[in-house]
Amino acid sequence: MTALESATGSREEDLLVRLDRPRRRRRRTVGGVVLDIVLVVFGILMLSPLVWLLVQSFTVAEFAFADPPRWLPVPFTIENFTQVFEYMPFFQQFGNSLILAVIATGGSLFFSVLAAYAFARIDFRGSRILLVTMLAALMVPAQLVIIPIFIMMRELGLVDTLASLWLPALVNVFQIFFLSQYFKTIPRELDEAARLDGAGHLWILFRMLVPLSGPAIAALSILGFEASWNGYFGPLIFLSSPENMTLPLGLVTLQNGFGAAPAVIVFAAITMVVVPLLVVFLAFQRQIVESVASAGLKG
Amino acid sequence: MRHRRIWKVCSVSSETATPVRRRGAVLQRRRTELAGWMFVSPAFLLFLVFVAGPFVFAIVLAFLKWDMLTPPEFVGTANFAALFSDPVLPRVLLNTFLFAFASIVTHLVFGLLLALAVNRVISRALSYFARVAIFFPFLISWAAVALLWKYVLDPTFGYVAQYLGGLGIHLPNFFTDPAWALPAIIFIDLWHTLGFTFIIMLAGLQTVPSELVEAARTDGATSWQVFWSVTLPLMSPTMFFATIITFIGAFQIFDPIQIITRGGPQDSTMTIIMYLYEKGFQAFDMGYAAAVALVVFVIIMGVTVLQFVGRRKWVYES
Description:
- The complex is a heterodimer.
- Helices cover 71% and strands 0% of the residues of chain A.
- Chain A has helices at residues 2-9, 12-15, 30-57, 79-87, 90-121, 127-136, 142-155, 163-169, 173-184, 189-196, 201-212, 214-230, 233-238, 247-256, 263-283, 285-298.
- In chain A, helix 14 (247-256) packs antiparallel against helix 15 (263-283).
- Chain B is an all-alpha fold.
- Helices cover 75% and strands 1% of the residues of chain B.
- In chain B, helix 5 (124-139) packs across helix 8 and helix 10 packs antiparallel against helix 13 (286-314).
- The radius of gyration of chain B is 27 Å and the shape is flat.
- Chains A and B meet through helix 3, helix 5, helix 6, helix 7 and helix 10 of A and helix 1, helix 2, helix 4, helix 5 and helix 6 of B.
């Protein structure tokens, strides 16, 4: 496998993408200005649905979705937001999403770190075939294994609980592979030195390799959190009662379920999901973008 | 600081280490083997329970008839026979491949053009704005995106139809018109995931050494020649990777379809995962759903193998 071959020679800068490069002084050309304008217009078009979302959710119901469209919330109200709580247990679902994302991300990272250490640092019989088998499983679509997992969760009586979602998420082959690649970029001499000082495997892993792998672990955390937080297929299949739902499923139920909410209230709920995300994104823009790029390129 | 000290110790020690006695070596070997398996086993056990086991079980399931209420019944290849003579299947496969093809073309073209536009020497503010505007939608859950776009493209409430209507252009009702539902989903998907392709392309462009571009320029190459003969060949690994990953993602499109059209109108947006969901989790025909899932698996495996073979053939490696 090419992935395994490339594993040996890779350095840190190959594994984590940096998107900022030193800038030279710019020369203004007509073509350049045109391209700048095209980019601005394209950016505005990309953001327009989100601005429209925000405006409608702050507009009094009777005046929302007006034709011609308005880009300011007149008359202004926050009524739509207070109404959200009458239609869905928003904070409960927010909490469910958070619990799921934290357990799934933290748990899978813990097991991945352990396994990655073995693959990167311990020469044990069968390690190569084990890794190749697990990597081959990356080709298996999630929808294939979810059918038996659904049957399993039903037998265990775990349907309609968050456990049915985070239990299968505890193993993440991509994380194991990515981390073991990253560990290999850290000089092995460090381990040997620590071992001479009397350190065991656990010390070397958790006191040395993990702290030295901050960027990789941060990138995987961001990706894992994003996947759990936004997941829809799993929650749709496993969760049925509103108080157990995660936010994405809660939003869709708000619009489709029995006693569906009026559009402005659905919009207010979407705003309540999107705005915190936007705040987090603007705060950690570089880390998030570079994590996605790194993982994407090595995926 | 601490590592530097460790470093010194080790450079001496590995040279002066004396051969250990045989018995000790065997014990040491055994201990290493054990440690390796101990570190791998938690993840490996989870892998067996939640990946390998279900995978084998799904294959068995494809040979059963089971509604999850009555006991399962062995039916041989009946599920596959029914699937391959299923009148809906050709439509499902056509929709899915059509979606995937359109998705690859639109994502790659727009992603590359935008990355080229942002990778120029541009102001920091514009670069920041473009990256945020193009990438942020990718982080929003499909649930929120699908619900929002259902209104954005609505013929009466949505601003797209309102503006175009003002210009005298009347749009179809995208999600109830069999000719327009799939293109509409393709468009929404482009808005949602273009940011990912864009970032991959941007990262790819930044691996193109600027010295090569400068050298070509000095030799009198036009911008177009530089793009065609320098940038594009060096970008081919990125383009190839983006094609594969877009295909695998697009082939499994589900969320917006389940939320907006549920496969309709008249199966015009029925993609293979939506079909699998209907058979397995609406009709509770678990064996049939497993057979559909195996078809998805075979196609994705085929593409992945193609990736390994094709990378050597089509990609320019320096």
